[in-house]
Amino acid sequence: MDKTLFTLLSILTAALVTYAIRWIPFLFFRKHEKLPSEVIFLGKFLPTAIMVSLVVFCLRHTDFLGTSKGIPEILSLLLTVLIHGKFRNIFLSVISGTALYMILVNLVFI
Amino acid sequence: MKKDMINVRAAFRNTLPIIFAYLFLGATFGLVMNKNGYGWYWSLLSSMFVYSGSMQFVQAGLLTSGASLIQTAIMTFLVNSRHLFYGLSLTEKFSKMGKVKPYMVHALSDETFSLLISPDIREGEDEKTVMFLTALFDQIYWITGSVIGGLIGSYLPMNIKGIDFSMTALFTVIVTDHVRKKENRIPAVIGLVSSVIFLLILGPDSFLLPSLLTSLAVLLFWKNMRKSEDKGGTVNG
Lengths: 110, 237
What we know:
The complex is a heterodimer. Chain A has helices spanning 3-28, 37-58, 71-87, 90-108.
């Protein structure tokens, strides 16, 4: 098969599967006029559990037992949380934590 | 017009935390595709229609290694299965989105999801519009980054090590805001224990989906426990 056509089909495949996955939860509850109490409950509390899992997901390859001991990550996240506690500004908190992390992994923990 | 500008500014304010990350990460994607022999138009297509950071990077590898369409489909499902849970969390919010709902569903990247679960809406701002623009702006940053990376190729220092930590920081900030409310602390602990246990048992590449399923099950169990307590009965009774 011609490379261009195949690449196009590959991207389309990934796009369709991704879109389908994102749609499935919404399709399940289309017929309900009122959403089941479980879904409303999950809508309230599942996001927090997901966000925590995503943090763990981001840190999944961190070398906690190895050379860096996860120190760049721990220090940077600590700074992020402290700055956020003080200024309550998402942009500022994210930038400070990221800046510290980049300094640490590029200049200190090489 | 003035009303529109209020909502545009609100969306900009909401998406500010991820602008640079999306521009740089998107550019990194464009760069990787470029190095693998796929020009900026492929990155553009991918970022428009797949719009899933991790999957797009994986696909760059799949395309190079000549993976079949079936392999691509399976990988996509595995990498993006967590998105099943995003819809579950947003069913109520999205039911009010009307005509743009199909786009909102498409736009459910990790970061957009995290911004949409608790958007910063202030007085005079229209929640529906701001949510839509937030999702749209996010994707625009991502597409822009990808195209720039694809065009410029090796001329820019795109390998800025550590910039993707901004995602970790963003998710952490959001967790911090959530757990300020007492009611979210048990869900947070459930998520944490579940993901750490499964991470240790199954390893970094396989833990997320089982962990999310377990969190969901435990949350529903917790719901039933609370219901029994409210009714004055004991769990064992």
